Amino acid sequence: MSTATYTVSGMTCQHCVSAVTEEVSGLPGVTGVQVDLAGGGLTVTSDAPLDDDAVRAAVEEAGYEVAGR
Amino acid sequence: MSTATYTVSGMTCQHCVSAVTEEVSGLPGVTGVQVDLAGGGLTVTSDAPLDDDAVRAAVEEAGYEVAGR
């Protein structure tokens, strides 16, 4: 199992959290997604280590930006 | 035709705008809904004048507050 934490910018409300959670949850191999709205933290748990670019693309698809990892 | 403008507080993103638009659009007689995210303005067009309490309830159902009319 693998866990990675990113910082996401632009999330302002629980709808934003839902949008990010939904997109990232859809990535192959992802088994868990936790988003901390206040701090912008996104923690992704997966079977195997994920490609950061895939996570970044999913966050952008939801309408937000990965500001760091 | 009747038009009423309210001020809604708590909307922070386009998802919030969508949530308010969807709820208010569902009120009987409503023919148009316009939301201005930046200013919090909600303009509702309807066949006949609406009950303010119904609009207020729809906004609250979406998770926000009518701060004034």
UniProtKB/TrEMBL annotation, chains A, B:
Q: Does the keyword Metal-binding apply?
A: yes
Q: Which UniProt keywords apply?
A: Metal-binding
One BP term from GO: copper ion transport
Q: Which InterPro entries match?
A: Cu-bd (IPR000428), Heavy-metal-associated_CS (IPR017969), HMA_dom (IPR006121), HMA_dom_sf (IPR036163)
The protein's GO terms of the molecular function aspect are: copper ion binding
Per its UniProt entry, which superkingdom is the organism in? Bacteria
- Kindly give the CDD domains that the UniProt entry links to this protein: HMA
Q: Mind telling me which SUPFAM superfamilies this protein's record contains?
A: HMA, heavy metal-associated domain
Bilayer-crossing residues are none
Asked whether the keyword Transport is assigned, the reply is: no
Q: List residues of the HMA domain.
A: 2-67
The identity of this protein, by name, is Copper ion binding protein
Source organism (scientific name): Geodermatophilus amargosae
Lineage, broadest ranks: Bacteria, Bacillati, Actinomycetota, Actinomycetes, Geodermatophilales
